[in-house]
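hey so i finally got around to running the thing on that chain from the lab meeting. sorry it took forever, my laptop kept dying and i had to restart like 3 times. anyway pasting the input first so we r on the same page abt which one it is
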Amino acid sequence: MKKIIVFLALCLGVVAQAQETYRFAERDTCSLYLDIYRPAEGSQTQLDSLDKPTILFVFGGGFIMGERSHPWQLPWFKTLNDNGYAVVTIDYRLGMKGVKVGKGLSGAYKASEAFKNAQQMGVEDVISAVSFLLEQKDSLEIDPYNMVIAGSSAGAIISLATEYEIVSGRATGLPEDFNFKGVMSFAGGIISNSGAPHFTKAPCPILLLHGTADKAVQYKSLEFFGKGIWGSSWLANHWKQKGYDNYCIYRFKDSTHDVAMYMEVLWDLEKAFLEQNVIQGHARCIDALVQDASLPHWMSISMNDIYK
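ok and heres what got predicted. didnt touch it at all, straight out
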């Protein structure tokens, strides 16, 4: 299905094209680049006289693979551009590439430090990208203070972890007053080796989309002796207990890790979140269980499949 969508999009010439590419960081092992996709000519870049945010996208791939502008993502970028949103897609270092992960829960536990380090490397690279955009905001005509970070799978993990570090005051390298205008997480969570995440203040508006049968990124949580991953369901329940009221979670009943690839499929939910929670600033809290047999199903993948 995914290959068919990409093939048709390419044939019909309906994919977005990155107008600009910039190097935003130099690491010991690689250079990191970002692509900018500008809003389509004639699209509405404001809503109620308010500028629409830029979408900063962090790709998925289990911290071992992926591309900032993979062809299958381009139709979604075009949808965003056609609706007046600029898109910035970024590289980050693949911290699990070449790391051996044993089978089952014991293998994941033994690799817990590597997983945490991979997440942290991604967070550092997101912060570098944001810092570059802050430095170049006038020449690039992009306002990083009006930006929503969105991620798929490993990219969703990085996105949520970055927001957690920002609200916890640990995001070194960013201005003290910086925060995203929102987060969109497609099958994400937060990795920790020091117990469950604990938000001491409300994060920015967050959209969580996750399959209840996801075996690659835990929908609830998976913890051994304080090390593990806390998924979308756990995070939403935590925020509910804290009394935070500006998050939306859609729990896709019996769906697997397919939800990590639902960016184009779930545009209506994203549009409502962007317009109401982010742009208009409504404190809008939704907790919905979705059962929809028409949603596409590509594969059922587990951690063992990714790190075999």
